[in-house]
Specification:
The complex is a heterodimer of chains A (about 110) and B (about 120).
Chain A lengths: L4 E3 L2 E5 L4 E6 L5 E9 L6 E7 L4 E4 L2 E6 L4 E6 L8 E9 L4 E4 L3 E6 L1
Parallel strand pairs in A: 2-11
Antiparallel strand pairs in A: 1-3, 3-8, 4-5, 4-9, 6-7, 7-8, 9-10, 9-11
Chain B lengths: L3 E3 L3 E4 L5 E7 L5 E8 L3 E8 L6 E2 L6 E7 L2 E6 L8 E8 L13 E2 L3 E5 L1
Parallel strand pairs in B: 2-11
Antiparallel strand pairs in B: 1-3, 3-8, 4-5, 4-9, 5-6, 7-8, 9-10, 9-11
Classes of the chains: A mainly beta (about 110), B mainly beta (about 120).
Chain lengths: ~110, ~120
């Protein structure tokens, strides 16, 4: 099955700095890569996603890049704010099995 | 807005009890999912369902069963709860148009149920 690895597991940045979270996947049948933000006491919420026919996608301060050859994708958050503090999960969807596989999460702390 | 609700936010049960976790979505989604979330392990799929009365095993189905009698409701059942089933349980739903190859759509998650088995 698919194996999604996520790094780092914890990340602390100063407010205003950038944060980068990286994920790798193993199954070339993965074709959709969402990123979720989970705040304390809440379920994960989609913040950005990218499909396998696209290399980069941006939404205001958040961007995702995908390198299909190397099988890795990254989340970039610029101008971080304290409200960005949360746990972030990456995921890969394997269309042959019709199933999502999740990374182990990154706890991001933005220090005011 | 899509809403996925779970019957309980916190639940405490004893070993051997039968436990029902309920999930309801209000957007007529075809697919529903049950995950468990554990520190350092991320989200792991227990079961999912494409349609009413349909179910598929995920990665960790042992010790669990599911029921989907109505499109909007997906239940997770622990037949005989054990301490290693203490976890956060997350329900999700998504809309995938039938017949579309390689189709995938956003998953919407509920707030989770934190289950403690003593």
């Amino acid at each position: 099955g698919e194996n999604v690895e996520q790094h780092p597991s914890t990340l602390s940045v100063q407010e205003g700095d950038s944060a980068v979270i990286k994920c790798t996947y193993s199954d070339s049948a993965s074709n959709y890569f969402p990123w979720y933000k989970q705040e304390l006491g809440k379920g994960p919420q989609l913040i950005i996603d990218i499909r396998s026919n696209v290399g980069e996608k941006k939404d205001q301060r958040i961007a995702v890049t995908l390198n299909k050859t190397a099988k890795h994708f990254s989340l970039h958050i610029t101008e971080t704010q304290p409200e960005d503090s949360a746990v972030y999960f990456c995921a890969a969807f394997v269309y042959t099995g019709n199933q999502f596989y999740f990374g182990t999460g990154t706890s991001l702390t933005v220090i005011p | 807005d899509v809403k996925v609700t779970q019957s309980s936010r916190y639940l405490v049960k004893r070993t051997g009890e039968k436990v029902f976790l309920e999930c309801v979505q209000d957007m007529d989604h075809e697919n529903m999912f049950w995950y468990r979330q554990d520190p350092g392990l991320g989200l792991r799929l227990i079961y999912f369902s494409y349609d009413v009365k349909m179910k598929e095993k995920g990665d960790i189905p042992e010790g669990y069963s599911v029921s989907r009698e109505k499109k909007e409701r997906f239940s997770l059942i622990l037949e005989s709860a054990s301490t290693n089933q203490t976890s956060m349980y997350l329900c999700a739903s998504s809309l995938i148009p039938s017949g579309r190859a390689m189709a995938v759509d956003e998953q919407f998650f509920g707030p989770g149920t934190r289950l403690t088995v003593l």
